[in-house]
Each structure stands twice: as structure tokens, then as C-alpha cells.
Design a protein that fits this description.
The chain is of the alpha/beta class. It has 2 domains: 172 residues, Peroxisomal Thiolase, Chain A, domain 1 (3-Layer(aba) Sandwich), CATH 3.40.47; 147 residues, Thiolase/Chalcone synthase (Peroxisomal Thiolase, Chain A, domain 1, 3-Layer(aba) Sandwich). Helices cover 31% and strands 25% of the residues. The protein is built from 10 helices and 13 strands. The strands form 4 sheets. It has a 5-stranded mixed β-sheet, sandwiched between helices. Strands 8-13-12-11 form a 4-stranded mixed β-sheet, with helices on both faces. A hairpin with a 3-residue loop joins strand 12 and strand 13. The longest helix is centred in the last third of the chain and has 22 residues. The chain is globular. The chain starts with 5 loop residues before the first strand and ends in a 5-residue tail after the last strand.
């Protein structure tokens, strides 16, 4: 194991916009209340990116610059940029390319990866392959979403859940056994109808009709999504542990996607990991889709130690889900 090249996270950065929307703010928009939202989701407030005419790439740049600085990287040294996002700045060009241009990463190629809330994990694993083969030395992986741009603030089923924010990590080669050790990623398109944006793609291009019908926003059949998420996110986290002969006491931290407090608790219960070793910030940021896992790592970074075993797990629209087993590569 010692001589095998692994992709290690060598720096982490995160960013959330300053503007907060509390549950009491939402009470003024839809028929809901703080107690109802907290008891069902665990969310107390979420951040909204209000910069006029700016998108996901602009919002996440502070986190990206942070990663470049912390990893002592000259932007021209970056080989590849993968941006996991459900809210790209444009249909094309890729948000990753806009990030690269802003950075001055002249030698990098880049692309976006879309797997809804599981996207950051899918991007992390994809980026790690380029490192493991020895082809690349520096891969920037970004997970960010401006969910406020696709949320209907008249739909109380979805507007309470989502917030804006994102993070980024640098992946670099490691030969000391620390890095991304294993992953299990899954998807099932039969779940598409339960969590989707109905219009804006090639099946239903934008029209007056689709805009008037509120079809350019997140549509979710909550009960069905919850049922699948609880089962699949918990099972895949347990599966990656079993595959690597890991028990609860081996794991320093469980890093779950922040979709719903009850889903987080179910995943902790299934893996046997106590809640004091589970990263949770959903009460402050809500569900930032591709931003949740990097934001957790960013917030908890100072508590992470070199060699710590982490299990990352997510579930998203598509349906998509997965888990990653990694050994943390540095002391803060």
C-alpha cells in the first residue's frame, strides 16, 4: 500500500454567502413555521447568493483561491478542474472553464459533472483516477450550487430545504497510504421522476408555457425521495466500510450529505458511528447540493488529523448515491 499512488486531499476551501434566510423569513412567503421545518429537516437557516448577474462560478471563487493558496499551487500548475454543480452559470460553456479562466489556470482542461447531490463524490472519485494513473499531479475538484436560482419560493416542500454555497479541494499524489482508498458509486434513472427540473433541457426547452408553469425549478416528491435516500445512503456507507473491513471504532468521522437531519441520523445509525463523530452543519446552511460535503470538511478541518479514516456518503436526484472511504492526508 505504501508505494501505491493515492489521490490525497491536500487543501480544502469553502464559501457561503453572507445573506441568511431564516425559517421565520420563509413563514412570510409560504404557509410553514420554524417548528415544522426544524422537526422535519433540522434546518434553521440557509444562505442566499444575491449578487446581481453572478452565478455559481463567481460565488465559489473565494473557496477556490483559498485552496490554491493553501496548497502552494501556481494556477498554471493545475492539470484538471472538475466542477460538480447542478446550477451551472450557463448550459455551456462549462462552469469549470469559467473558474479556470478566473484563476488563470492556462494549462488545465476542465469540465462539469452533474449527478445532483452526489456530484461532489462522483467528481472526487473521477479526479482521483487521473492522479492514481500518474498522469496528473494537481486536480482541482469543486462542488458548488446556487440553488436559489432554481427554487420556487412559493413551493413550501422545496424552498425550506435548499441554500447556496460551495467548496473545493486540491487532489495530489500520495504514497504514504493517505488519500482516497475506495469508493462505491451508484445510480438508477428510474428515480428521475421523483426529483427533477422538468423544463430547460432538450426534452422541454424554455418557452412562455414552461416558465408560466414553474417548470424551471426543483420538483420533488418528498416522501418517495426520503424513503430511497434513507435506505440507499445508509446502506452504501455501511457497504464501503464492510468492503474495507472497517468497524465503527475505526472511523474518525462520517461526512454525510446534508439533505435532511433524519437521513443523516439514519446513516449514522446504520454504520454504528455516534453522532458526535458525524459532521453536521445543515442547521446553518441547509442543503447546498454539491456544496454540502466540501463545506463540512472545510468547517471541521481543524479537528481532522493525518491518517484519520473518513466515510463520505451522499444521495441525490437521478437517483444517484455513493460512498467514499479516505484517509485524511495532513494535520491542520
Amino acid at each position: 500500500m505504501a508505494n501505491k499512488i493515492l489521490a490525497a486531499i491536500t487543501a480544502i476551501g469553502g464559501f457561503v454567502p453572507p445573506d441568511k434566510v431564516t425559517n421565520s423569513d420563509l413563514e412570510k412567503l409560504v404557509e410553514t413555521n420554524d417548528e415544522w421545518i426544524v422537526s422535519r429537516t433540522g434546518i434553521k437557516e440557509r444562505r442566499i447568493y444575491r449578487e446581481e448577474g453572478k452565478g455559481t462560478s463567481n460565488m465559489v471563487m473565494p473557496a477556490v483561491w483559498d485552496v490554491v493558496t493553501k496548497s502552494n499551487t501556481n494556477p498554471e500548475e493545475i492539470d484538471l478542474i472538475i466542477c460538480a454543480t447542478t446550477t451551472p452559470d450557463y448550459v455551456f460553456p462549462a462552469t469549470a472553464n469559467l473558474i479556470g479562466a478566473e484563476l488563470g489556470a492556462k494549462n488545465a482542461f476542465g469540465y462539469d459533472l452533474q449527478a445532483a447531490c452526489s456530484g461532489f463524490l462522483f467528481a472526487l472519485v473521477t479526479g482521483s483516477q487521473f492522479i492514481e494513473t500518474g498522469k496528473f499531479k494537481k486536480v482541482l475538484v469543486v462542488g458548488a450550487d446556487k440553488m436559489s436560482s432554481i427554487v420556487n419560493y412559493q413551493d413550501r416542500a422545496t424552498c425550506i430545504i435548499f441554500g447556496d454555497g460551495g467548496g473545493a479541494v486540491m487532489l495530489e499524489p500520495s504514497t504514504d497510504g493517505n488519500g482516497i482508498c475506495d469508493s462505491i458509486l451508484k445510480s438508477d434513472g428510474l428515480g428521475a421522476q421523483f426529483l427533477m427540473m422538468e423544463a430547460g433541457g432538450s426534452r422541454r426547452p424554455p418557452s412562455h408555457e414552461t416558465v408560466d408553469a414553474h417548470q424551471h425549478v426543483v420538483k420533488q416528491e418528498g416522501a418517495t425521495v426520503f424513503k430511497y435516500a434513507v435506505t440507499n445512503m445508509a446502506e452504501v456507507a455501511a457497504e464501503v466500510m464492510e468492503k474495507n473491513n472497517l468497524v465503527e471504532s475505526d472511523i474518525a468521522w462520517l461526512v454525510p450529505h446534508q439533505a435532511n437531519k433524519r437521513i443523516i441520523e439514519a446513516t449514522a445509525s446504520r454504520t454504528g458511528i455516534p453522532m458526535e463523530r458525524v459532521m453536521v452543519n445543515i442547521e446553518k446552511f441547509g442543503n447546498t447540493t454539491n456544496g454540502t460535503i466540501p463545506l463540512c470538511l472545510w468547517e471541521y478541518e481543524k479537528q481532522l488529523k493525518k491518517g484519520d479514516n473518513l466515510i463520505l456518503a451522499a444521495f441525490g436526484g437521478g437517483f444517484t448515491w455513493g460512498a467514499v472511504y479516505l484517509k485524511w492526508a495532513y494535520n491542520s
